[in-house]
Write a structure and sequence with these properties.
Blueprint lengths: L4 H11 L2 H8 L5 H13 L13 H12 L7 H14 L5 H16 L3 H15 L2 H17 L2 H4 L2 H10 L17 E6 L2 E6 L8 E6 L2 E3 L20 E2 L7 E2 L2 H15 L3 H7 L3 H16 L2 H7 L4 H6 L3 H5 L18 H18 L11 H18 L3 E3 L2 E3 L6 E3 L4 E4 L7 E2 L5 E6 L2 E6 L10 E2 L10 H12 L20 H10 L13 H14 L7 H22 L4
Parallel strand pairs: 11-14
Antiparallel strand pairs: 1-2, 3-13, 4-10, 5-6, 7-10, 8-9, 12-13
Helix pairs in contact: 2-3, 3-17, 3-18, 4-5, 4-6, 5-6, 6-7, 7-8, 10-22, 11-13, 13-18, 14-18, 17-18, 20-21, 21-22
GO biological process, one term: methylation
InterPro entries: SET-MYND_domain_protein, SET_dom, SET_dom_sf, TPR-like_helical_dom_sf, TPR_rpt, Znf_MYND
GO molecular function, one term: protein methyltransferase activity
């Protein structure tokens, strides 16, 4: 019932339970309200058994046959989606698993993804290829091998440029080694303050941060690696659950070791109760942190959160995700938290109920303190945790066109999340799978604060909607000069700037990017962005930024080789 907030709230009021929640919310300990909510859910029988969905050969076969029905209409993307679901549900080394690999190899062959085809055929044979398709697959493999070398030749000259572009070779910050030394990282008045230490030109990569945690949206669940966010046709399944696919054995092992060995037991619960990026990131992050720490340390660390932890921590502990407890250093600066706490208390409580049932997860002693530590961290991340929208560039499986993916994923970043929001930022993000690559799009002066936008600046979203998204997503109100109307319009170029654009020779009226000249377009964009840094509201700056973003999209797709 609590998944229907209005009806559940009416029930709580009639039953008198709402006052218990409100009283618990007055406590300084975030665990209290979760424990009260858990007791209410138990008393009202709102915690049903949710059995784990086990691997099933019949279900896998049904999904594969559904995919087969898409072939006559050449709906290859839908067929691939069904085959990936069939693979996820197939028991290990079963006939159903082999057939899912086999059928997927057919799609890859038809679409001339020959190396992908060969990979799936090899996996089919290693799984235990049924005799009745062996000869057909051997012939398909032979034919695919003849053309496999063509996969890598077509764009190889471009990849030299794009691979070099995303090579982060800067001398790095001592405490936060994925950030350039040209960035000064500090804490002022318990708030992060990230500024330029030196002059930074447009196009400069200032940081390349790997996500602390990622979450796939339902639309991407069966086309994206659960660990690194790589988008590949050659995904492989989790050994025990039906919800997760990986791009490699390395990612599968890494994810299992970090947290999925526990999450796997309650993944159906998470999918049922967690709606949106925030709650999903929360529970996965808590499981990851607990896997890192022994119970005694986990309990101890849970008692110092947010601003209190920032006050007593080093720069490395606050900004470097490699630091064990960096997850606990999100500043407590969210507005309007009471409604969030009230609603989140029941989600946290329900998840907590099922987490306690994970085999070999809870300690044999001190269980009450462990329970409270989990509750405390879950609520802290619900209120203060950060989420980023990850929209990657992909090459279309059928048309071969490069474009942004249609459905975003979510990720949590320790450093990137602490940058100040600006509607006209001096840094934008390029997504290389689960890495956030921060790239300057203005000339940044020493001492100037590094800023980014919650929404891609070239998205065309209305300013009002950007502000609403910021408030709902992060609980923050934008205080940038544009939103507070403290700046002039900054939209008129000087005569010298108009002449400079002519000299550079970038055609601002061109909407398409010639990918074979992308390195030249990049350089021209960087020059103009530098020169127009003081007029970020001008049409010329916005058009140049859009062209720069289009170049980045092409480079991202070539770098990652993501196919969707």
């Amino acid at each position: 019932m609590f998944m229907q907030p209005r009806f559940f709230n009416e029930f709580l009021i009639k039953s008198g339970f709402d006052t218990q929640v409100y009283d618990a919310m007055k406590s300084d300990d975030l665990a209290d309200v979760v424990i009260v909510a858990l007791n209410i859910l138990k008393k009202t029988n709102n915690l049903p058994d949710i059995p784990k969905l086990n691997k099933c050969e019949n279900l896998s076969n049904t999904l594969r046959e559904t995919g087969n029905k898409c072939l006559p209409t050449m709906d290859y993307k839908s067929a691939l989606h069904c085959y990936n679901k069939a693979l996820a549900c197939a028991p290990n080394n079963s006939k159903a698993m082999a057939l899912a690999y086999s059928n997927r190899s057919f799609i890859m062959f038809i679409l001339k993804r020959f190396q992908n085809c060969i990979t799936d055929i090899d996996r089919c044979f290693s799984t235990g290829c049924p005799d009745f398709i062996k000869q057909k697959l051997l012939k398909r493999r032979e034919d695919a091998t003849k053309f496999a070398h063509m996969d890598s030749l077509s764009l190889s000259p471009l990849k030299v440029f794009t691979n070099n572009f995303f090579s982060f070779n800067a001398v790095c910050h001592t405490d936060v080694p994925f950030v350039s030394k040209d960035i000064n990282i500090a804490v002022e008045f318990l708030q992060p303050k990230i500024t330029a230490a030196n002059f930074i030109n447009s196009g400069t990569i200032i940081a390349m941060e790997e996500a602390y945690m990622t979450v796939l949206t339902a639309e991407n669940q069966f086309n994206t690696c659960y660990d690194c966010l790589s988008i590949t046709p050659n995904l492989i399944p989790c050994n025990t659950c039906c919800s997760v696919l990986f791009c490699s054995e390395k990612c599968k092992q890494n994810c299992n070791e970090q947290y999925h060995k526990y999450e796997c037991e309650i993944i159906n619960v998470r999918e049922k109760f967690c709606k949106g990026g925030g709650p999903n990131l929360m529970i996965k992050s808590v499981l990851k942190l607990k896997t890192k720490l022994k119970w005694n340390q986990f309990i101890k660390e849970s008692k110092t959160l947010g601003n209190s932890r920032i006050e007593q921590s080093t720069i490395r502990e606050v900004f470097n995700s490699a630091s064990d407890c960096s997850l606990l250093t999100f500043p407590e600066n969210r507005t309007f938290v009471h409604g969030i706490i009230y609603n989140a208390s029941f989600v946290c409580a329900a998840l907590l109920h099922y987490v306690l049932k994970i085999p070999r997860f809870m300690p044999t002693s001190n269980k009450d303190e462990a329970l409270r530590a989990l509750a405390r961290l879950m609520m802290y991340l619900c209120v203060n945790g950060s989420r980023s929208y990850v929209i990657q560039a992909v090459t279309d499986l059928v048309s071969n066109q490069i474009k942004p993916q249609q459905h975003e994923n979510f990720a949590s970043y320790i450093f990137y999340s602490k940058l100040k929001h600006e509607c006209k930022p001096n840094v934008i993000v390029s997504w290389i799978n689960n890495k956030a690559v921060l790239i300057a799009v203005k000339k940044i002066m020493p001492g100037e604060e590094i800023t980014t936008s919650n929404i891609e600046p070239t998205s065309g979203m209305l300013q009002h909607h950007v502000n609403i998204n910021l408030l709902v997503g992060t609980g923050k109100v934008c205080t940038c000069s544009k939103c507070t109307k403290k700046d002039s319009k900054n939209d008129t170029l000087s005569g010298a700037q108009i002449e400079f654009i002519k000299q550079v020779g970038l055609n601002l009226s061109e909407t398409n990017i010639d990918i074979w000249a992308i390195n030249k377009v990049f350089e021209k964009c960087k020059e103009i962005l530098d020169d127009l840094s003081d007029v970020p509201n001008s049409n010329e700056y916005l058009i140049t930024l859009s062209q720069f973003r289009k170049c980045l999209t092409v480079c991202e797709a070539l770098k990652t080789e993501n196919i969707l």
